[in-house]
Write a structure and sequence with these properties.
Blueprint: E1 6-11, H1 15-26, E2 30-36, H2 40-50, E3 53-55, H3 58-64, E4 69-72, H4 79-88, E5 92-95, H5 103-116, E6 120-122, H6 130-141, E7 147-155, H7 176-192, E8 196-204, E9 215-222, E10 227-233, H8 261-266, H9 272-282, E11 307-312, E12 315-319, E13 323-328, E14 332-336, H10 345-357, H11 365-385, E15 388-389
Parallel strand pairs: 1-2, 1-4, 2-3, 4-5, 5-6, 7-10
Antiparallel strand pairs: 7-11, 8-9, 8-15, 9-10, 11-12, 12-13, 13-14
Helix pairs in contact: 4-5, 5-11, 6-7, 7-11
Bound molecules: nicotinamide-adenine-dinucleotide.
The site of nicotinamide-adenine-dinucleotide (NAD) has 24 residues, from helix 1.
């Protein structure tokens, strides 16, 4: 069974797909056989790179291609319809974060997968990362007592990366709460057991030219008694990769001398349409796109989502790109991690284990819905809702 490869179709050949491309190209349990995208240039490039069928819609792809599963990397507002269409065609689904833009849509996706008896996973997100998994193992061992407090801090240039208009419109799923809290909250839930009871939060919308939430600060209280304080800013000033050995989010070495690159790259674009075109040109199939990788990227460390400090009774635990460092009572203990050979392999490991080997997943539809519920609660609290109580939470490794 371990030799069988998962036959995957991809819907949405944009930036998310490009980030996952080295994983899709080099993961040993994967075969990429088909794609669907609205852009002809992306379909042409897919046919050239993978030799597979590239069609215009998820429905056509699922009807025509011999695939086990579909990876959905279309804009946020498309996720629910595309996941339901794939499930109705009998295909397993890996859907990008955020899972959808409403609890009702998350539930619709979960129900469609249950009816079709297919798997529904949400990812990639940074709770798959090996340092986070190792940190959770250390916490779960109980050696350092209960987890009391999580501090998460991430400062990036998210708001100034080239965007489509809807990515700067919160009503269409834009802004950092849907896109980035979906990572930070996911990591905190994974480390603290999953069950958030309440959230109190504020959001920041600081640049009138980029009129969406670019920052938030949230306090999550867990059923376990642990508390997480999570702060994110996407305004491109301080870069918290400085706290992560100058490794970027995807594990590559970063040059601090490139300060301000994202802000400068969009400065001379007159309209949002120009910016959307600029993004598409750099995207898959565009004239300035990166070439197909001929080998897995070299010299990578593990991925991360900024600084996390996990305070247990007898230690502060710090997942880092190359190791997990434990600041215990009398000593500092370093747990080195082997570097990744295929980036984001953990995501395809979990997907292929679920589908090919029947191994239970962590990042199920129910898990994704619970993380989405928490993101939505950040908005509700920030809009005057005070401390918001949650009701769709699930524990790690359970769908109930
Ligand atoms: N996990 C990560 O590191 C990461 C990074 C970037 C993006 N993402 C996620 O990827 C998803 C897509 O974002 P993006 O930045 O790649 O956007 P994008 O605009 O770069 O790509 C979206 C692609 O979907 C295609 N598309 C749109 N509507 C379609 C439809 N109805 N049928 C078929 N194709 C359609 C577009 O032509 C485009 O190629 C989002 O969920 C985003 O959060 C994840």
């Amino acid at each position: 069974m371990a030799d069988r490869k998962l036959k995957l179709g991809v819907v949405g050949l944009g930036r998310g797909f490009t980030v996952l491309l080295p994983t899709l190209a080099f993961h040993p349990r994967l075969e990429i056989v088909a794609a669907a995208d609205a852009r002809p240039e992306a379909r042409e490039r897919f046919a050239a790179d993978f030799g597979g069928q590239a069609l215009e819609s998820v429905e056509a792809m699922c009807a025509g291609a011999d695939i086990d599963a579909v990876y959905i990397a279309t804009p946020h507002f498309c996720h629910a319809d595309h996941a339901v269409a794939a499930a109705q065609a009998g295909k397993h689904v890996l859907v990008e974060k955020p899972m959808a833009l409403s609890i009702a849509d998350c539930t619709r996706m979960i129900d469609a997968a249950a009816t079709a008896k297919t798997h529904l996973l949400v990812g990639p997100s940074h709770s798959y990362d090996a340092p986070i998994v190792k940190a959770r193992q250390i916490i779960e061992s109980g050696e350092f007592g209960p987890l009391h407090m999580i501090t998460g801090l991430n400062y990036t240039d998210f708001i100034y990366r080239p965007r489509r208009p809807d990515e700067l419109d919160s009503s269409q799923g834009g802004g950092v709460v849907y896109s980035q809290a979906a990572h930070q909250i996911d990591v905190a839930r994974y480390l603290a057991g999953g069950m958030i009871e309440t959230i109190y939060a504020t959001t920041g919308n600081y640049d009138p030219k980029r009129p969406t939430e670019g920052a938030y600060s949230a306090m999550l209280k867990f059923a376990s008694g642990a508390v997480a304080n999570l702060t994110f800013s996407g305004y491109g000033h301080f870069d918290s990769d400085e706290f992560c050995n100058w490794r970027g989010e995807t594990g590559g070495q970063k040059n601090p001398a490139n300060y301000g690159t994202a802000r400068r790259s969009i400065r001379d674009l007159a309209t949002m349409e120009d910016e959307g075109q600029f993004k598409a040109d750099r995207g898959y199939g565009g004239p300035s796109a990166a070439p197909f990788p001929t080998q897995p990227p070299q010299g990578l460390s593990h991925e991360h989502f900024g600084l996390f400090m996990l305070s247990c009774r007898d230690a502060d635990i710090r997942p880092m790109p190359e190791s997990v460092r434990v600041y215990a009572n009398d000593e500092i203990i370093e747990h080195p991690l082997d570097p990744p050979t295929v980036p984001r392999a953990e995501v395809i490991d979990e997907l292929s284990a679920a589908i090919l080997d029947g191994v239970a997943s962590v990042h199920t539809g129910e898990w994704g819905r619970a993380t989405f519920e928490a993101c939505e609660a950040v908005y509700r609290s920030a809009e005057g809702g005070g401390e918001v109580r949650l009701s769709h939470q699930v524990v790690v490794g359970s769908n109930k």
